[in-house]
């Protein structure tokens, strides 16, 4: 599974990831809706711990809607059920593109990883506001994971807490964010990625039954620059460590760490005159 482009643990469909990589605080006041195009290129491990990489270029529609309840914005897609000065609670979605096992040496001959959709609640808590244009917040998403290949199948659940620093003005049109976090999953989801059923076992890939627990620890950041009112450029870089993974004994976990990165643009060609009522 990949990101965002993106595999599950990154928090998004490829287009959603590219959009969210512009993850700094947006300018205010924000329009109720925006329409445009998002594009870019990403490179990431084929799945967490894979020795093979996946690179992809994308150009996709970009739609932002900042309603009181239903929202599609820099934080993702979902329904915001509660908001105060320090806390926000929503139910949202994220997705990942499929990964063909024929393209991954360690998984050759095994079933491919299908398109995955995450759905579930998330609590966002503002921990501090160091300056007027910055904040530190905690994100606590708990999501069930559904595979869409050949019908809908529940693949388990994931919990991905992280702490994020966001700054909306670094000077000269730049904004940015940085984060640290963990990703954990139940035994069912970990087995989807790291389990090897007996019929797929080989000399270099013994049978393995995955267990619940930590998938990875992650640190990363993104930068965005406003070129003009309709055009933004962005880039991101993530470092992931799998050394403490609950399934470090899996024959499919080939590396102790991995790096993902990407660059892209967002071209907004239409926006509402009405401002969002945040």
Automatic annotation (TrEMBL):
UniProt-listed Pfam families: MipA
Signal peptide: 1-26
Keywords: Cell outer membrane, Membrane, Signal
An example Gene Ontology CC term for this record: cell outer membrane
Entry's localization field: Cell outer membrane
InterPro entries assigned to the protein according to its UniProt record, in alphabetical order: MipA
Main subcellular localisation: membrane
Source superkingdom: Bacteria
This protein's record includes keyword Repeat: no
Keyword field contains Membrane: yes
Family, as annotated: Belongs to the MipA/OmpV family.
Record protein name field: MipA/OmpV family protein
Protein species of origin: Massilia cavernae
């Amino acid at each position: 599974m990949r990101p965002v482009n993106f595999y599950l643990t990154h928090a998004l469909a490829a287009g959603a990831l590219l959009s969210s990589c512009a993850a700094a605080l947006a300018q205010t006041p924000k329009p109720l809706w925006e329409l445009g195009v998002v594009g870019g290129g990403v490179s990431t491990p084929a799945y967490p711990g894979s020795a093979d990489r996946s690179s992809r270029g994308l150009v996709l529609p970009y739609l932002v809607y900042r309603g009181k309840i239903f929202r599609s914005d820099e934080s993702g897609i979902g329904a915001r059920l509660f908001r105060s000065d320090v806390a926000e609670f929503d139910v949202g979605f994220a997705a990942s593109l499929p990964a063909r096992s024929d393209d991954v040496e360690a998984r050759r001959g095994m079933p491919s990883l299908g398109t995955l959709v995450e759905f579930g609640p998330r609590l966002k808590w503002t921990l501090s506001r160091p300056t007027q244009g910055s904040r530190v917040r905690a994100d606590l998403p708990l999501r069930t994971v559904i595979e869409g290949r050949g019908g809908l199948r529940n693949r388990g659940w994931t919990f991905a807490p992280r702490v994020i620093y966001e700054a909306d003005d670094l000077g000269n049109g730049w904004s940015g964010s940085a984060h640290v976090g963990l990703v954990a999953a139940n035994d069912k989801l970990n087995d989807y990625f790291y389990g090897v059923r007996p019929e797929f076992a080989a000399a270099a890939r013994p049978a393995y039954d995955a267990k619940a627990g930590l998938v990875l620890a992650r640190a990363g950041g993104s930068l965005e620059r406003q070129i003009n009112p309709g055009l933004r450029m962005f880039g991101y870089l993530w470092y992931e460590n799998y050394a403490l993974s609950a399934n470090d004994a899996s024959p499919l976990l080939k590396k102790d760490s991995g790096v993902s990165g990407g660059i892209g643009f967002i071209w907004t060609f239409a926006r509402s005159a009405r401002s969002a009522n945040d």
